[in-house]
């Protein structure tokens, strides 16, 4: 008999909670409950944003919705955010699931986890506008983020993206408490993910090793499976989230 779970889905850079809608539809059709929130500074024009405000938005939602024993999911840069949120949410989380996560090391910023050329590009972008925001270029998005999708799907997904504040990515992250949490974790590896070049700065196995030991679920597809193959991502989430 299949277990039914309650998922709280946290997006990554340049997204809003709407990016999960296709995955949510599949999960709900399979009897699961889903929640997807939009973090501050994503589509709302807010620029006074910090990592702590991201975390507090998650905690506030969990409290307001009275969630308990739910599966907390973080995609990409949302991975570090949910790790920090887990410190506050404790055993209300049944399992933490990370999808192709970008994880800061304890005491470092997310900009230190990306290839140096990317960090330099983001810093230049932020300095070039009054709001200290960054946005992924279409050329990078098309092949590095969502190369497994048709151009039509890739364009439609790109049109949903929004600039995001650069500041939170430059904050040093204290993960010493997270490292001690007795929390069940799963890692979803998107097998065609080349958001960072394969090699020294590739997401896998570099990010997996930071949270291992944990369950590993492999799924074929790119970094943006919520658009390119939501059915496959939903299936991977079900496998990753089960007890």
TrEMBL record:
GO molecular function term, any single one: hydrolase activity
Please give the name of this protein.
Alpha/beta hydrolase family protein
Matching SUPFAM superfamilies, A to Z?
alpha/beta-Hydrolases
Membrane-spanning residues: none
Domain AB hydrolase-1: where? 7-236
Pfam families in alphabetical order: Abhydrolase_6
Q: Which UniProt keywords apply?
A: Hydrolase
Superkingdom is Bacteria
Q: Which organism is it from?
A: Maritalea mobilis
């Amino acid at each position: 008999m299949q277990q039914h779970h309650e998922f709280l889905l946290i997006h990554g850079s340049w997204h809003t909670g709407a990016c999960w809608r296709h995955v949510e539809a599949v999960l709900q059709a399979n009897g699961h409950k889903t929640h997807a929130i939009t973090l501050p500074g994503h589509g709302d024009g807010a620029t006074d944003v910090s990592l702590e405000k991201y975390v507090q938005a998650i905690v506030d939602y969990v409290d307001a919705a009275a969630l308990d024993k739910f599966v907390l999911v973080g995609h990409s840069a949302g991975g570090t955010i949910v790790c920090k949120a887990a410190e506050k949410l404790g055993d209300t989380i049944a399992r933490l699931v990370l999808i192709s996560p970008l994880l800061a090391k304890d005491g470092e910023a997310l900009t230190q986890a990306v290839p140096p050329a990317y960090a330099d590009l983001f810093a230049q972008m932020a300095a070039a506008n009054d709001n200290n925001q960054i946005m992924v270029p279409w050329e990078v998005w098309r092949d590095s983020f969502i190369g497994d999708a048709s151009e039509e799907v890739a364009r439609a997904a790109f049109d949903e993206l929004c600039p995001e504040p650069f500041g939170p990515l430059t904050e040093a992250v204290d993960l010493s408490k997270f490292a001690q949490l007795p929390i069940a974790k799963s890692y979803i590896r998107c097998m065609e993910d080349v958001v960072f070049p394969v090699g020294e700065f590739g997401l896998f196995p570099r990010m997996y090793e930071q949270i291992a030991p944990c369950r590993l679920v492999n799924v074929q597809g790119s970094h943006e499976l919520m658009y390119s193959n939501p059915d496959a991502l939903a299936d991977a989430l079900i496998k990753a989230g089960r007890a």
